[in-house]
Structure formats: structure tokens, C-alpha cells
Amino acid sequence: MFRRPEWKASVRCQRSFQTLPRFAEAFRERLEKKAGFKFVPKPMPMKTKTNSIIYYLYFASQKEAGMDIVNDIFSKYREKQGL
């Protein structure tokens, strides 16, 4: 999905801790706008024991029920992680 050059503008020349969340949000928006998913909740950052983000877990669906289930799961994980 990020084969087009416009995604680079959102993260180019930024070497800070804030870059990864911006990239994650840009990808989430692309799932909605370009891939056409109706329901794309905020992604879940998956972290190591040292609290470093190693990847983001996404969910995308055409059905609201799927998003409700995933939001419930993600919110439990966020509480556990203190997010």
C-alpha cells in the first residue's frame, strides 16, 4: 500500500520517537481512504519487555461488529500495558 511516494512526505527527515506513531497513523488512514475499509480502529502498538515498539497490529473491516470486537480486545491490552 505504500508504494506511492506520498507516504514518504509524512515521515521524511524526521528521526525522532514521534516518527513511528505518525507512520502508523498514515498507514491506518490509507487503509480507510485507499483500500476502502469502512472500519479501521487505532492500531495496537506491540512492545518488547523493554517497552520498545516492534510493530503495530492493525484491524480493518467492512463490518462494524468486527471493529467492536477488536476494540474490546485492544482496550484490554492497552489497560494491561498502561497505554
Description:
This protein is mainly α and 83 residues long. The protein has one domain (6-81). Helix content is 47%, strand content 11%. It has three helices and two strands. The mean pLDDT is 83.
Give the total of domains. Answer: 1
Order of helices and strands: HHEEH
Mean of the pLDDT scores?
A: 83
Task: List the total number of helices.
Answer: 3
Q: What distance lies between the first and last C-alpha atoms, to the nearest angstrom?
A: 27 Å
Report low-confidence residues grouped into runs of 5 or more.
Answer: none
Could you describe the largest sheet, including whether it forms a barrel? 2 strands, antiparallel
Q: Into which percent range does the helicity of residues fall?
A: 40-55%
List the helices and strands and how they pair.
Blueprint lengths: L5 H6 L7 H15 L10 E4 L5 E5 L6 H18 L2
Antiparallel strand pairs: 1-2
Offer a few descriptive terms:
mainly alpha, 2 strands, 83 residues, two-stranded antiparallel sheet, single chain
Describe the structure concisely for a colleague.
The chain is mainly alpha-helical. It contains 3 helices and 2 strands.
